[in-house]
Amino acid sequence: MLYRIKTTDEILEPLRVFVTDKELAKLFIAATIGPEYPVPTLAVLKSPEEIDAYDFPDNCCIKPTHTSAMIILRKDGEDIDRERIKSWLNFNYYNRVREANYRYLEPKIIVEPLLFNSKSVIDYKCFCYNGEPRAIQVDIDRRGDWKVGMFHADWTEHQVTVDAEMGHPAMQKPANLDQMLAAATKLCQHFPTIRVDMYSNGEDFYIGELTHCTGGAIQPMPPGAREDELSELIYGSDWRHPASQTGGGRPTHPAQ
Questions:
Q1: Which of 50, 62, 57 is nearest to 77 (CA)?
Q2: Which residues are bridge partners to 64 per DSSP?
């Protein structure tokens, strides 16, 4: 399903390209569900000179707006590598994973606060299809002792994860789950399938990003991951015939 999106014209739909940019996605999120839901922005830096001149907060999140999986979490005023940050301005994520929605994005660096004082923040990745949330992947301590769980939208645990070796820690239903699902439902109306990435401490939540091709649509499923069951959970039986569900069309990148 994801590879069909990635290799057909659907990945170049103007709205998909627009919200791929992490700065511009916040405009869409704010317009759709309210300005209080996007993660706040402290600064957007567009040149090496701006990066050199900027006084990064002691506690902040630093990442490119035009790539994925590149991030610096600065805590307690620790040293930061400005040369690394500047190098991101020369990186074209399309060259790595061939997601065409990234190809012509303007290189920028976005600076955000660490949410909830960087404590008790849990990632909720809501997989949506045909206008409704279907599954929620829960990530705890992604940059430490990473734990993953997968749940139905009603919070029934599903014994499937994108990485079978992560296991299933005991995870409690967040008190604001209904509000989170309502927000994801409004956002996903504009896409046949999308992943809405959220952060919550159980009381408040923010929308971080909108993800089109989880794992670049090339993430391997490890042995025992039960990929068929995960596909069934998110897409129902439609995943068995993806060409008719995502608009079909000829591949936009014949080299793939």
A1: 57
A2: 109
Give the pair of three-digit tokens for residue 63: 């990442």
Cα–Cα dist 197/230, whole Å = 18
Place of tokens 């919550």: 200
Query: What amino acid is encoded at 66 in this protein?
Result: H
DSSP letters, 146-206, are -EEEEEETT--EES--SSGGG-----PPPTTHHHHHHHHHHHHTTSSEEEEEEEE-SS-EE
**2-244 belongs to CATH 3.30.470:** yes
Rounded to 5°, angle at Cα 128 from 105 and 222: 85
Structure tokens given for 145 = 């002792």
**What digits encode the pLDDT tens for the residues 45-93?**
999 999 999 999 999 999 999 999 899 999 999 999 999 999 999 999 9
Tell whether pTM > 0.70.
yes
